[in-house]
Write a structure and sequence with these properties.
The complex is a heterodimer of chains A (501) and B (306). Chain A has 501 residues and is an alpha+beta fold. Chain A has helices at residues 3-19, 54-63, 110-122, 156-160, 174-177, 225-233, 248-252, 277-280, 282-291, 294-301, 330-339, 359-372, 384-393, 411-417, 420-423, 432-440, 446-463, and strands at 34-39, 68-70, 76-78, 81-88, 91-96, 134-139, 144-149, 187-193, 197-202, 216-221, 239-240, 257-268, 270-272, 306-307, 346-352, 376-382, 398-399, 402-404, 466-467, 471-479, 482-483, 499-500. Chain A contains 17 helices and 22 strands. In chain A, helix 9 (282-291) runs antiparallel to helix 11 (330-339). The two termini of chain A are 38 Å apart. Chain B has helices at residues 2-29, 34-38, 45-54, 61-73, 87-92, 95-122, 127-141, 144-158, 171-200, 203-210, 215-243, 247-252, 258-267, 271-299. Chains A and B meet through helix 6, helix 13 and helix 14 of A and helix 2, helix 3, helix 8 and helix 13 of B.
C-alpha cells in the first residue's frame, strides 16, 4: 500500500465513523437481502401522474414519495409534507420536510411540489382530470406550499397520497427523464424490462431512518394467477397479490407459504340503468335487492373471502356508518313486483369479462335467485371495452362492477356516480338533493363531511340505485421468510419496511 | 426466376397494403373507446372526449389512415396509447423473447417431430409406430394451457429443476418451448410418417435398395429429401404462427412476447400497437412464404418458376 492509498483508506474509515451516529441511532441495520414480488397487473409507465394502475402505484411508491401516505387503517400520515391544514374551505397549506434529496442529489423543496402539481393539472395525463379544481399552487419560502382551489377540495390530501413528487428538472425532457427517473423514495430505479420485471435498489440516504430494510427489490409482472402461485410455491418469489378464494387452500398447504387477507377498500356495487323502464321504479329495484341472498354469495361462492355490506362506503373511510345489512326476503320481493305491476320482468345483467374473481358464477347464482321471484335475467358477459360502450349507450339494466376507493376517501365515488354530470353517460342517476349534499361534503372539515356523507348514504340505502352485494377482501400470499409484510386493503404491495430472513 | 421474384414481391406489397387497411378499419369499427379504457372508470365524459381528441381519434377515418400511411413510410408507427411511447419501440422490445421462444420451439419441432415420424414410418406397425402415434395424438389434443401448468407444477414446483416462469436465461426457455412445440411436433411427426411411407413404396426406393445402397442412405438421402417438400410448407406456416406470438404459452409462463402484447393491446384498444404487430407479422409471414417457395426449387430441381 502506498501513502496515497493509505490516506484515501483512512479517510473512508474516518468518514464512515463520523457519519454512523447520525443514521438513526445504533439499532438501525443496514439494508440486507433481496425481495422478489410477483404482481398481477403489468406496469405501463414510470410517470406517477399518468396512470391509475394499482401495480404501478405499488412499484412507483418505492421510487417516489408523495406528500402524504395513508396507513392501512385509513389514517393520513406525513411523507414529504410534515404537516398540512386547511386555511379555509378553498385553501390548503403544506409544510414540507427539510433535508430530503432526490436520488440524483438535488434537494427536494417547494419548487418540486409546485412543478408536480401544476404539471398534473395542466398536462394531458391520466390523473389530470382529478386536479382540475386546483386554482393555483404558490410556494411560501422553500418549505411551504399553498394550494388554492376553485371550489372546496376536501379530498385533496387523500388524492395526494397517490401522486409521487418529481424534481423540476424533469420539465421539458420528460421522455428522457422517465427512461431513468429519480424520486426521493426509499429505492432507486435501476431498470425496467417491459412486460417482465422492474429492478430497484435501496436508497442509502433515505430520509426515514432504518428504511428500507433490503438492498434490492425486484418486481415481476405475472398476470396469470396460477403462474404467480407456482413461482411463489417454487420459492422463486416472496409475495404475490390478488389471490383468489379458490387458490387459498393450495397455498395454505404449501410449506413456507402464508396467506394473508384483509377487508379491501373496495365495495362491489352493481348499478342499475335508472332511465330504463324495467328498473326505473324503486319498488322493482328493492324487489331485486330483497331477492338476492348475499350470504350465499359470500359463503358458498367466495368461500368467506368477502364481507357483508352495511353501507355503500366500506368501513374505515370517512362517512361510513353502519346502516345494517340488506335483508333477504323473496316473499316481500314478489309482493313488491306485484305492486309495481311487473309480472314478466326480464333484465339484462352486463359483466365485464374476467374482471372480477368468480363474477360469472356469482351472476349465475343471482340469476337463479331472481328466477325464484319471477325475474328472468339475461347475463351478457362482454369484453371490457364493449361492456363499457354498452353502458355509455345505456343498453343494460344491471351492470356488474366494483369500486375501489383508492384514495381512501369516498368523494370520488359520490362525485362520479351520484351527480348529474358524472352519471349522465353511466347510470343516469339524477337527484338534486344528493348532488347538493355531495357539494357540501367537499369541504375540508371532517365533521361536516361525515355528517353530509351519512345523509347521502341514508338516501342511497333507501333508494337503491345500486345493489351492494359485498365488500371485497384482498388476499395475498407470502413466503415465511418475509418480515413485517402488511396485507394492504388498497391492494398495494409495499416493501419499504419489509425485511427478509 | 427473376420476373417471378419481381411479381411475387409486387404481390407481397399489395398484400401488406391490404392487411394494413383491413386492420386499420376493423379496429375503428369494433365497439370500444380507447380513451375510456385508458382512464379509470371514474373519469368524467369531458376528460374522455379530450383524450380521444388528443389521440387523434376524432378525425375522419380516411384522414387518420392517410396520416398513418405517411408516418409508416417514415418508419413511425405512432405512439402506443397505453405505454405513451413509440409503438414500434414497444413492439420491438418484445422481439428477442418472441424470436427465442419461436426458434427454440421450431428446432424442437423439427428434431423431435421428424425423428418420431421417420422412426414410425421405417418401423411401421411396430411398438415404435404405435408409441409415435400416441405421442402425436397427445401433442395435438392436450390444451396448451393445461400442458404448461402441468409442466410448471412438475418441474418447477415439485422437482424444482427448472424456473416456473419469466425470461432471464436458457433454463427459462425449456418449459415454454416444450409447451409451444407440442402441437406442431405432433403435426410434423404425422406428416413425416405419412409422406415417408408413401415415398418408401415408390419404385426408385426399391431400385436404390436393389443396387445395394445402405438403408440409412436410402432413407435419409432419397426418401426423406423427397418427403421434405410438404413438410416445408407446413413448417413455413407454423413458424409464421409462432413468430406472431403464442398468447397462451406466454400467459402461462409470464413470457414477455408479442402474443400477449397484442392481445392486451386489442383489449385496451391500443390501436397503434395492434397495427404495428399485425403489419410486422404479416410482413414476416409473407417473407417466409416467399423463401419457402424459393427453397422448393433448391430441394426439388424439377420445380421451376417462370
Amino acid at each position: 500500500m502506498n501513502r496515497r492509498e493509505f490516506l484515501v483508506g483512512s479517510g473512508v474509515v474516518l468518514g464512515a465513523s463520523a457519519v454512523r451516529p447520525t443514521v438513526a441511532g445504533a439499532q438501525a441495520q443496514p439494508p440486507r437481502g433481496h425481495i422478489i414480488a410477483g404482481l398481477s397487473e403489468r406496469m405501463l409507465t414510470l410517470d406517477p401522474a399518468n396512470h391509475y394502475s394499482i401495480s404501478a402505484t405499488s412499484v412507483l411508491r418505492h421510487v417516489y414519495d408523495p406528500l402524504l401516505d395513508v396507513t392501512n387503517d385509513d389514517k393520513f400520515v406525513p411523507a414529504l409534507a410534515e404537516s398540512w391544514r386547511p386555511v379555509n374551505n378553498t385553501t390548503w397549506r403544506f409544510t414540507l420536510r427539510k433535508g430530503v434529496t432526490f436520488h440524483d442529489g438535488t434537494p427536494f423543496n417547494a419548487d418540486s411540489v409546485v412543478f408536480t402539481l401544476k404539471r398534473v393539472r395542466d398536462g394531458k395525463l391520466v390523473k389530470s382530470f382529478v386536479y382540475q379544481d386546483i386554482e393555483d399552487v404558490q410556494k411560501d419560502g422553500d418549505y411551504a406550499v399553498t394550494v388554492t382551489t376553485k371550489r372546496p377540495f376536501g379530498s385533496l390530501p387523500a388524492h395526494l397520497t397517490m401522486l409521487g413528487m418529481l424534481p423540476p428538472i424533469a420539465a421539458g425532457s420528460e421522455d428522457a427523464f422517465f427512461q431513468k427517473p429519480v424520486g426521493t423514495g426509499p429505492f432507486r430505479f435501476v431498470s425496467w424490462t417491459h412486460g417482465d420485471h422492474v429492478e430497484l435498489a435501496a436508497n442509502p440516504k433515505y430520509w426515514k431512518p432504518g428504511i428500507p430494510k433490503v438492498e434490492k427489490v425486484t418486481v415481476r409482472f405475472i398476470t396469470e394467477l396460477s403462474t404467480r402461485a407456482a413461482a411463489l410455491r417454487a420459492g422463486e418469489i416472496h409475495v404475490i397479490d390478488r389471490v383468489s378464494p379458490d387458490m387459498v387452500q393450495t397455498l395454505k398447504g404449501t410449506p413456507g407459504v402464508k396467506v394473508l387477507d384483509t377487508p379491501a377498500v373496495e365495495a362491489q356495487r352493481w348499478h342499475f340503468q335508472l332511465a330504463r323502464d324495467n328498473v326505473k321504479d324503486p319498488r322493482v329495484r328493492k324487489a331485486i335487492s330483497l331477492a338476492i341472498d348475499r350470504n350465499v354469495i359470500i359463503k358458498d361462492l367466495l368461500l368467506g373471502y368477502a364481507r357483508p355490506v352495511v353501507n355503500p362506503v366500506p368501513p374505515g373511510l370517512i362517512g361510513h356508518t353502519n346502516l345494517g345489512q340488506k335483508p333477504y326476503d323473496p316473499e316481500k320481493a314478489k309482493q313488491l313486483l306485484k305492486q309495481a305491476g311487473q309480472s314478466n320482468l326480464a333484465i339484462d345483467f352486463v359483466l365485464m369479462k374476467d374482471l372480477y374473481p368468480k363474477q360469472l358464477e356469482i351472476a349465475q347464482a343471482v340469476a337463479a335467485m331472481l328466477g325464484e321471484v319471477g325475474i328472468k335475467v339475461n347475463i351478457r358477459n362482454l369484453e371490457i371495452a364493449t361492456a363499457r360502450e354498452q353502458r355509455t349507450a345505456g343498453n343494460y339494466d344491471l351492470f356488474f362492477s366494483g369500486w375501489a376507493h383508492m384514495p381512501h376517501d369516498p368523494d370520488w365515488y359520490f362525485g362520479q356516480w351520484f351527480t348529474k354530470a358524472g352519471a349522465e353517460k353511466m347510470t343516469r342517476f339524477n337527484d338534486p338533493k344528493v348532488e347538493q349534499l355531495i357539494a357540501e361534503g367537499r369541504v375540508p372539515d371532517p365533521k361536516v363531511r361525515q355528517q353530509k356523507y351519512e345523509e347521502i348514504e341514508r338516501i342511497l340505502w333507501e333508494d337503491e340505485p345500486e345493489i351492494w352485494p359485498y365488500y371485497t377482501v384482498a388476499i395475498y400470499a407470502v413466503s415465511d421468510k418475509l418480515r413485517n409484510f402488511e396485507a394492504r386493503r388498497d391492494y398495494y404491495v409495499l416493501l419499504s419496511e419489509v425485511g427478509i430472513a | 426466376m427473376q420476373s417471378y421474384l419481381l411479381r411475387r414481391l409486387w404481390q407481397s406489397a399489395l398484400t401488406l397494403v391490404g392487411v394494413s387497411l383491413l386492420v386499420f378499419v376493423i379496429l375503428r369499427v369494433i365497439p370500444g373507446d380507447p380513451a375510456k379504457m385508458l382512464l379509470p372508470e371514474g373519469a368524467p365524459p369531458s376528460a374522455i372526449e379530450e383524450l380521444n381528441r388528443e389521440l387523434g381519434l376524432r378525425e375522419p377515418i380516411w384522414v387518420q389512415y392517410g396520416i398513418f400511411v405517411r408516418s409508416v413510410v417514415r418508419g413511425d408507427f405512432g405512439q402506443s396509447f397505453q405505454y405513451r411511447a413509440p409503438a414500434l419501440r414497444v413492439v420491438v422490445e418484445r422481439v428477442p423473447a418472441t424470436i427465442q421462444l419461436a426458434l427454440t420451439a421450431m428446432v424442437l419441432t423439427v428434431l423431435v417431430g421428424v425423428s418420431i415420424g421417420v422412426l414410425a414410418a421405417v418401423r411401421r406397425g411396430t411398438g415404435y409406430d404405435y408409441a409415435g402415434t400416441v405421442l402425436a395424438v397427445l401433442g395435438q389434443s392436450l390444451p396448451n394451457f393445461w400442458l404448461g401448468i402441468m409442466l410448471v407444477l412438475l418441474f418447477g414446483v415439485t422437482l424444482r429443476w427448472l424456473p416456473t416462469s419469466g425470461f432471464q436465461g436458457w433454463q427459462y426457455l425449456v418449459l415454454p418451448s416444450i409447451t409451444l412445440a407440442a402441437f406442431p411436433t405432433a403435426l410434423v411427426a404425422r406428416l413425416t410418417r405419412s409422406s415417408l411411407l408413401e415415398i418408401l413404396s415408390q419404385e426408385y426406393i426399391r431400385t436404390g435398395r436393389a443396387k445395394g445402397l445402405a438403408e440409412p442412405a436410402v432413407i435419409l438421402r432419397h426418401a426423406l429429401r423427397n418427403a421434405t417438400i410438404p413438410l416445408l410448407t407446413l413448417l413455413g406456416l407454423q413458424i409464421g404462427t409462432l413468430l406472431g406470438g403464442a398468447v397462451i404459452t406466454e400467459s402461462v409462463f409470464a413470457w414477455p412476447g408479442m402474443g400477449k402484447l397484442v392481445v392486451d393491446a386489442i383489449f385496451f384498444r391500443d390501436f397503434p400497437v395492434v397495427q404495428t404487430v399485425l403489419i410486422l407479422s404479416a410482413t414476416i409471414f409473407v417473407a417466409i412464404n416467399l423463401v419457402i417457395d424459393v427453397l422448393y426449387t433448391v430441394l426439388d430441381p424439377r420445380i421451376r418458376y417462370g
